[in-house]
């Protein structure tokens, strides 16, 4: 959605909004499973299972709900990596959502609407719910008195994830949770387009078409430019599947991928760095190296790129004692960690 354009009273605001839920883990994820939950939807797909497309100029609304009273914050990651803060804003300052209710932005009685503006391509919306109100002063700010929407300091999805991780780090892990959604923005007069369905036999697969990440598998992606393109399907713990497919205007191309278990070998060291494979039976454990969070244990494995020398490794997991140790890295290798309760 690039930027939001405001025309007061009964006139318009321009923005793009979320679409189907694919994976909350792609921006920021709580390693625990709190009893707090949040969801984000768009008006063209209330189920969160499709991938609706919006053309530039279309009106759109975002809805969010939580199972407990919570403060909900919405961010949009644009195709070019810039980030917009959708909520709270100076038009809808109240971001408090009552338990088991759905809040729509804009609400029916609001004196503004959202209109899709661009840029063209795949976007992502993050909904972050917290039982306590968060201080976002270090993440976003209103540049002047006329700004209706705050400017986000982060210039990429990774930057947003890092900034938000710092904000939620002091909170109890059962007091916040996140959800993400995807949507596609197409030109008002698009070129001939077709659709692509990618089916897989595993969860958490990712589809990359012509170098651009589309989202998860087992989803139909519409409004794709016709032509022949390389496609890559990735899944944690499996070798990437690559092929070339043809998108035909007015039809759906089907691609079914059957993964066989085979972990990709770790890459050779580059510029004095080494690959250290961290193994732990505690999936979802958060890993910190020298004070910085570097990832989460998935399928028992997390590959780290470390420079030569001593590094402090800390592993944090709900229900386990925090593991801390210092390792001297001189070559590629692996470390096995089993936190105790």
Could you give the order of the helices and strands? Answer: EEEEEEEEEEEEEEHEEEEEEEEEEEEEEE
Largest sheet: 6 strands, mixed
Number of helices: 1
What is the name of the CATH topology of the largest domain? Immunoglobulin-like
| Residue fraction in strands | over 45%
**Count of DSSP strands:** 29
Rg value: 21 Å
Shape: globular
The class by helix and strand makeup works out as mainly beta
Name of the level-1 CATH class of the largest domain: Mainly Beta
Average pLDDT confidence is 82
Q: Please mark out the parts with pLDDT under 50 across 5 or more consecutive residues, or reply none.
A: 2-25
* Quaternary structure type: single chain
How many domains?
A: 3
CATH architecture of the largest domain: Sandwich
**Share of helix, binned:** under 10%
CA-CA gap between termini: 45 Å
Keywords: Signal
Pfam family, one: PEGA
GO molecular function: carbohydrate binding
Protein name: S-layer protein
Summarize the structure.
This protein has about 350 residues and is mainly beta.
Layout of secondary structure:
Blueprint (H helix, E strand, L loop, with lengths): L4 E2 L4 E4 L23 E5 L10 E3 L3 E2 L1 E5 L3 E8 L5 E5 L8 E2 L3 E5 L6 E4 L5 E10 L9 E2 L9 E2 L4 H12 L7 E11 L6 E8 L5 E4 L2 E5 L2 E7 L1 E8 L6 E7 L4 E6 L15 E7 L6 E4 L2 E5 L4 E7 L1 E8 L6 E7 L3 E4 L5
Parallel strand pairs: 2-11, 4-15, 16-22, 23-29
Antiparallel strand pairs: 1-2, 3-6, 5-11, 6-10, 7-8, 7-9, 7-12, 12-15, 13-14, 16-19, 17-18, 17-20, 20-21, 23-26, 24-25, 24-27, 27-28
């Amino acid at each position: 959605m690039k930027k939001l354009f405001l025309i007061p009273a009964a006139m318009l605001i321009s923005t793009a909004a979320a679409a189907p839920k694919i994976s909350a883990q792609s921006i920021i994820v709580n390693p625990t499973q709190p009893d707090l939950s949040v969801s984000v939807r768009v008006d063209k797909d209330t189920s969160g299972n499709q991938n609706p497309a919006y053309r530039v100029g279309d009106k759109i609304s975002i809805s969010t709900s939580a199972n407990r009273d919570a403060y909900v914050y919405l961010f949009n990651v644009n195709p070019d990596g810039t980030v917009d803060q959708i909520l709270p804003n100076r038009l809808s300052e109240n971001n408090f959502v009552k338990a088991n209710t759905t809040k729509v932005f804009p609400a029916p009685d609001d004196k503004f609407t959202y209109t899709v503006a661009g840029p063209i391509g795949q976007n992502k919306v993050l909904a972050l719910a917290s039982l306590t109100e968060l201080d976002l002063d270090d993440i976003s700010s209103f540049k002047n008195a006329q700004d209706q929407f705050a400017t986000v300091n982060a210039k990429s999805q990774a930057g947003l994830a890092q900034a938000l991780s710092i904000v939620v780090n002091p909170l109890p892990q059962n007091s916040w949770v996140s959800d993400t959604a995807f949507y596609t923005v197409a030109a008002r007069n698009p070129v001939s387009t077709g659709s692509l369905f990618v089916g897989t036999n595993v969860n958490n697969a990712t589809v990359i078409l012509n170098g651009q990440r589309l989202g998860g598998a087992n989803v139909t992606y519409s409004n794709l430019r016709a032509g022949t393109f390389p496609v890559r399907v990735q899944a944690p713990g499996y070798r990437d599947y690559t092929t070339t497919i043809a998108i035909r205007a007015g039809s759906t191309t089907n691609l079914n991928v059957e993964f066989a278990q085979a972990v990709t070998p770790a890459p050779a060291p580059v510029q004095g760095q080494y690959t250290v494979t961290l193994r732990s039976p505690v999936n979802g454990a958060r890993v910190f190296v020298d004070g910085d969070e570097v990832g989460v244990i998935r399928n028992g494995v997390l590959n780290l790129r470390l420079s030569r020398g001593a590094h402090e490794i800390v592993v944090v997991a709900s229900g386990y004692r925090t593991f801390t140790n210092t390792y001297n890295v001189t070559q590629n290798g692996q470390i096995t960690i089993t936190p105790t309760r």
